[in-house]
Amino acid sequence: MNRRRTESGLRWIANAYNISFTLTLSEGLSPYELLRSVGAEERHIVPLTRSAAYELLLRDEEDHISDLDFLDWEDEAAVARLTNGGFLPAPPDTIVRAGSVAGWAYALEEFHCHTGTYLAALSQRGRAFCMHRNAKGFSRVDYALHGEPVTSFEPGQPHLTNDAPAEVALGFVHSGNEVGDVAFLRFLEGELGIYLPWEETEAELPAAAFT
């Protein structure tokens, strides 16, 4: 099953993050540069797996940290790193985890879209994309180039476009045969040649908490 997800490049994200997700791609940045660009302090960045980030997001502040499966709660240094980084004691609003692939930095968020606010800054060295699907199933794509926003649209809904049409700005035309966000992820696979391993995104990646 994991192999099929990996071979589909980016499209697997739409299934693996079936409630809500944000995928951000920034050309020419490292993961740490991406996180700093969206407001993280490097000393507060902590490596986290996806499952650890999920646990932190869904916990109640009143829960004892011993309930966290990934954490040895008696490891004072580990608890201090998470506390200083804003992951504990209250759950953060969102956690952004970042990695790199083929000359791009990528970021994944489980529910929110913190990175979308910073897309112009994330495009200083080239192109930047942000795709967000909310819990109601609506998707939005934003694209910026060299520090300037170019287009914002909902795949398959051309009347919900700001700035340049997607077909003009990117050459993307939704045929209607696939769900909009899946169609756009397939488009990015072909245009950018990005194949993001599912296994890598599940493992530890540099992560920042935002409230």
From TrEMBL:
Pfam families (alphabetical): DUF6461 (PF20062)
Family matches, as InterPro entries: DUF6461
Name listed for the protein in its UniProt record: DUF6461 domain-containing protein
